[in-house]
């Protein structure tokens, strides 16, 4: 192996090869770890092209590496990665076009930096998620990242106007268009987005910006049940301006206390179900009026009797802290099984009922269901009963996961709403995926990457 | 040929074969015509699958046929189409889910019928274009249709949650998901959308619905020039609620008179440039207030001094009639060259200047530039000078078209913004398309359709 590494190094500028560190070969939850032949951090699309051409000619596997924050093991090849291709040195914001609502960023740009560049141009880049301080644009696109603002602005796929990318044989796709409409051939942009580094390497993207809302606000409203939350969602959407609509379970709020997080729960008693609604309005819009009108409608329809509205930015941040602390509490308590699922909206209430009944028939796990209700996307996680530990459930965890996936799939839901397939869910994709789709995916993979060098074992075996 | 037709006919229910009529083998502008071995109109995805499996085994070309309204010849195989596969009998609205804002329609459903089904559920399906009375969902998706509401709601690609489709070998992709988030493998939906029937046949789609705006309005505002129109666009977008933002040239308005169309032009004098702004607001929104505030800002910034606001539906329809009559006037006068282009927004003013100067240096053509400014998408059409006729320019038309395409491409624009490639623009795609993209497209085409039966000659030669 050493031989080709030094050959490849000679082709590239000094400094391209990086020291190997754990960050490149482990993943955040410690479920995968590996080793690496060489970590290479090219500085340009041409250098990426050179590396891939070299690897393709010799059949050397390449794993593209962004911020390393993925949760399904797409960034780590167990057993060792010959080439870790890190985009960390391609982090330029190449250009901002405020009048066009477009920003062009390289794949290594950190999401928080892209958000900041947008704000400096008095614009909004709405992609927002927990790992935004370290996740990079290339990884976010290759996994079609979601987050809290998908309801209004869409996921990474929807926010991308064009990409620059390198195919496995080193050919470059120059597709950094700043166009809203372009019907000139197959949409390779959307094929590469979400392909998790198995078809090529995205090196830059032109991204959509939006006007910043003139006024924002948030509210936490208690609702009697998930069906009421959905009715409330419809009322809120009809008013316009909804950026996020998050479901919070009483279990999630009680976990904040159990995990001793310094978070004040603003509703008393703690409701079994509540929703966090975030809005951004145009000039002249008044968040207080907006929430008052919604709450009046909700009261009238029996959808909510209690709530708290945040009108200052400080209050809004405080409400969001409740929502954002739930994953922290989850981690502190330790999930037996975590799921990132989506369902047709109207199936959610019955799913929650049926799935809980089946799980409870098998086990005393506690269920924390929460997340992006507006998108039909829930994080549906199972935890040990009080006084018991995760290891007590080791023998059950597969069976419990299967119940959840089964209840999701039979309702035409998704067993991976925003995290992707990576290496974690390859088996589930084989088992639950549509055979026509899988067969077309395999044909495409073989045609674009005949040597099979790109992120082998991710998405497809 | 007759032999396989009768073999195939025997496999299918009686009535599947339709009488051949001109509609199946000509296109709206009469630029292509052909013949057909058999017109088949299956009633189910299984029948579509049977037809493709049969054709694939024998290498018989198939041209999928929707409403036949495409403008680039994608629906007609010159020299004769062995199988015209018409979706006309698969026109069911399979289901409407108002609470989910989802509608599932078969490929043969006419757009106007889908819009109507949405309205009956108190929802909006926002795809809207001139041919909506005959264009069918399958064709609209396979060409990624645009239209007037793309600015707010996106094009066909953005409005599609999932598809059911048949691959050339007869395999069915069951992808009618009603999910907003689903990261389980390559996005075949987006690959098939916009592939113009060259990779398979879309048989049904789950489509996004939206709340109907509580209040709507429109205004026609005179602007000094296209740069001012773009500044006005930014002000309008910051207010939220903009559904359409259309540029109208003085030439276009004068054509309405020249073509003797019964349309009153509501601004006097006729402005060299004007914009039609259409808005839809949520509950409590007041279109009069909205336009007053925008017009005050526009006056202050020197962006507009004259305009007319339509607040009743009758007035709004009247304003839209001005915009929608421009293509009719164009047809009456007869274009020398028509272009469907898009540009990065900020390039539009200088494009309009430069392109006009180059065209005028060669010819006395009149230019009518109009269309979806909010999307950077203009219909940029050239017409004979007064007193001259189209045939006077026959020797120049290719050179004139080349100037326009050249000015578009060097500014990173698109030579086919919403109409697609079809057969008309295959040469332009080869000449101006990115070589990496073309090479990947060819690899994908070969992998999915190795026998080359699907719409041969469209998009790729």
From TrEMBL, chains A, B:
Check the record and name the SUPFAM superfamilies matching this protein.
Answer: FAD-binding/transporter-associated domain-like (SSF56176), FAD-linked oxidases, C-terminal domain (SSF55103)
Enumerate the InterPro entries for this protein.
FAD-bd_oxidored_4_C (IPR004113), FAD-bd_PCMH (IPR016166), FAD-bd_PCMH-like_sf (IPR036318), FAD-bd_PCMH_sub2 (IPR016169), FAD-linked_Oxase-like_C (IPR016164), FAD-oxidored/transferase_4 (IPR051264), Oxid_FAD_bind_N (IPR006094), Vanillyl_alc_oxidase_C-sub2 (IPR016171)
Q: Is ATP-binding there in the keyword field?
A: no
Cytoplasm in keyword set: no
Membrane-spanning ranges: none
Q: Which UniProt keywords apply?
A: FAD, Flavoprotein
Any signal peptide, and if so, which residues? none
According to its UniProt entry, the protein's GO biological process terms are: respiratory electron transport chain
Instruction: Tell me the superkingdom of the source.
Output: Bacteria
Q: Which residues form the FAD-binding PCMH-type domain?
A: 32-212
Q: Which GO terms describe its molecular function?
A: catalytic activity; FAD binding
Return the similarity comment.
Belongs to the FAD-binding oxidoreductase/transferase type 4 family.
Q: Which PANTHER family match?
A: BLL6224 PROTEIN, D-2-HYDROXYGLUTARATE DEHYDROGENASE, MITOCHONDRIAL
Q: What is this protein called?
A: FAD-binding oxidoreductase
């Amino acid at each position: 192996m050493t031989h080709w590494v030094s050959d490849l190094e000679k082709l590239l500028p000094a400094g391209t090869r990086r020291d190997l560190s754990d960050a490149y070969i482990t993943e955040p939850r410690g479920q995968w770890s590996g080793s690496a032949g060489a970590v290479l951090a090219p500085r340009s699309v041409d250098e990426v092209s050179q590396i891939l051409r070299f690897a393709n000619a010799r059949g050397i596997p390449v794993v593209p590496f962004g911020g390393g924050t993925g949760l399904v093991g797409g960034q780590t090849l167990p057993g060792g990665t010959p080439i870790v291709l890190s985009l960390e040195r391609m982090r330029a914001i190449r250009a901002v076009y405020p009048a066009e609502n477009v920003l062009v960023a390289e794949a290594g740009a950190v999401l928080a930096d892209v958000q900041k560049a947008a704000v400096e141009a008095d614009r909004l880049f709405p992609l927002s998620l927990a790992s935004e301080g370290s996740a990079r644009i290339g990884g976010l696109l290759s996994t079609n990242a979601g987050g809290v603002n998908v309801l209004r602005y869409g996921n990474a796929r929807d926010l991308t106007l064009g990409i620059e990318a390198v195919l496995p044989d080193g050919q470059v796709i120059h597709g950094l268009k700043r166009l809203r409409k372009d019907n000139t051939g197959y949409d390779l942009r959307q094929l590469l987005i979400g392909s998790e580094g198995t078809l090529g390497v995205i090196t830059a993207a032109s991204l959509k910006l939006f006007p910043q809302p003139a006024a924002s606000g948030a509210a936490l409203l208690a609702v009697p049940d998930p069906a009421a939350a959905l009715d409330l969602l419809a009322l809120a959407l009809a008013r316009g301006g909804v950026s996020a609509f998050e479901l919070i379970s009483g279990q999630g709020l009680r976990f904040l206390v159990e995990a001793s997080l310094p978070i004040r729960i603003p509703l008393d008693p703690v409701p079994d179900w509540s929703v966090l609604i975030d809005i951004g309005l145009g000039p002249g819009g008044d968040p207080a009026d907006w929430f008052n009108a919604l709450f009046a409608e909700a009261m009238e329809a029996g959808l909510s009797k209690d709530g708290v509205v945040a009108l200052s930015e400080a209050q809004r941040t405080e409400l969001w802290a409740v929502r954002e602390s739930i994953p922290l509490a989850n981690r502190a308590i330790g999930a037996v099984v975590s799921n990132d699922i989506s369902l047709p909206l109207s199936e959610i209430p019955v799913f929650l009922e049926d799935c809980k009944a089946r799980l409870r028939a098998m086990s005393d796990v506690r269920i924390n269901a929460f997340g992006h209700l507006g998108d039909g996307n829930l994080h549906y996680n199972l935890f040990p009963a009080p006084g018991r530990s995760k290891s007590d459930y080791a023998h059950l965890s597969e069976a419990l996961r299967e119940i959840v996936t089964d209840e999701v799939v039979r309702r035409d839901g998704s067993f991976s709403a925003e995290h992707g397939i990576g290496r974690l869910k390859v088996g589930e994709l084989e088992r639950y995926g549509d055979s026509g789709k899988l067969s077309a995916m395999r044909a495409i993979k073989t045609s674009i990457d005949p040597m099979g060098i790109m992120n082998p074992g991710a998405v497809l075996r």
